Amino acid sequence: MTPKELAIIAAKALDEKKGKEIAAIEIADLTTLADYFVIASGTSNTQINALCDAVEKAMKEQTEETLLRREGYRDGTWVLLDYGCICVHVFSQEAREFYGLERLWRDGRPLDLSSVLTAD
């Protein structure tokens, strides 16, 4: 599977668990960290953990990608799921505004997810 397809699978999993403000940014031309960042917000620590669990389940069931690292799971304000070619960031709203990944990586190309996400 391509990194773009993996990013879409992650975005769908986040959407199915009612993640908020789901976005994906292609950063392959800007860094070697990953090809895509997928970013979402959760409304509580419990929902943030459920969103991460949903991504892990979808990636395990639909792809052959292995989770390389998970950071911040216990804190529940910013969880990072690193799959190598994609990194999934799930934030509380406050942490997302504070860290501003979309602002930091604004030179990346947004991935249009309108065809995969349900309208709020």
Automatic annotation (TrEMBL):
SUPFAM superfamilies: Nucleotidyltransferase. Pfam families: RsfS (PF02410). Its main location: cytoplasm. One of its GO terms (molecular function) is ribosomal large subunit binding. It is found in: Cytoplasm. Keywords: Cytoplasm, Repressor, Translation regulation. GO terms for biological process: cytosolic ribosome assembly; negative regulation of ribosome biogenesis; negative regulation of translation. InterPro entries: Iojap/RsfS/C7orf30, NT_sf. It comes from the Bacteria. The keyword Repressor applies. Signal peptide: none annotated. One of its GO terms (cellular component) is cytoplasm. Interacts with ribosomal protein uL14 (rplN). NCBIfam families: rsfS_iojap_ybeB. Belongs to the Iojap/RsfS family. Functions as a ribosomal silencing factor. Interacts with ribosomal protein uL14 (rplN), blocking formation of intersubunit bridge B8. Prevents association of the 30S and 50S ribosomal subunits and the formation of functional ribosomes, thus repressing translation. This is Ribosomal silencing factor RsfS. It comes from Pusillibacter faecalis.
